[in-house]
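Instructor's aside before we start: the two examples that follow are unrelated to each other. I chose them only because their records fit on one page, so don't look for a connection. First example below.
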Amino acid sequence: MTGLEAMPGIVLTTSVHVYPSTSLSHRLYRAEGRATVRIGSRDTDVTLYANRNDLARLRDLLDNALTQLDAASGPTAA
């Protein structure tokens, strides 16, 4: 194996807190069918590398989390 196939799925485990002031950006690599998502600034950041299918999985996960948060903050039973 060479390249990305030889690498484990997770290289590093870390936690990231996203605040209103946290910089979020992305960069497309169209020819490779992937993108990077950068959380943080130039000095301190985490960059996620993912192909299109994994980005869709992440989008769906975040959408599900938002849906559950919205449902939890709705009206409560008396």
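Example two begins here.
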Amino acid sequence: MDTRHPTRSRSDRFPRRRVIAAAAATGVGALAGCLGSDGESGTDDGGDTGSDGADDGDAAGEGSDGSTGEASATAWRTTELTDVLTDEAFRIDELEGPVAVQSFAVWCPNCERQSESLSRVDESVTVVSLNTDPNEDAEKVRNHAEENDFDWRFAVAPAEMTQSLIDAFGAAVTNAPSTPIIVACDDGVAEFFSGSQQSATEIEAAADEC
């Protein structure tokens, strides 16, 4: 059963009443902290992120009027990406919604299991798998998708998009073993899940709330 913010344990699900802007104060440094020197995670159990309080996170990175933080926290929707399987350019906000965005790494076995669930999601939900490991490139991601017969959009997140995701959802969004999933609605609202694998049914249920 999902637990609601501020508790982050099995699954983070943020309220639908607003666009999420829960930023962790750790920023990009947290991304580096969750990776070893060879790009592998120090843990594979997707445990508690240890972060709480969206109100604290909302202020991270904001100027006196909040505009800087808000812009960064929504830039992940408008960043141009390239599908490594087709070379097609796309943006999250231009896709037919709802859009389920998976943050993953090739080395992560939990991510592969989450991808198997994504392969069973109804066609009414657009799926994007977004590699947020700075040590992996498009070729590695393409080989991973092809070897596993995953046929939806796969892309490598530019550094600025990764930072935007952190600004929006906290550092947990780059913790690949916690199988982060964002369900983005057309109206700008997003729900973030982390800490346990989400089934196709659970992802579809979140999409139905858009």
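The chain is about 30% helix and 15% strand.
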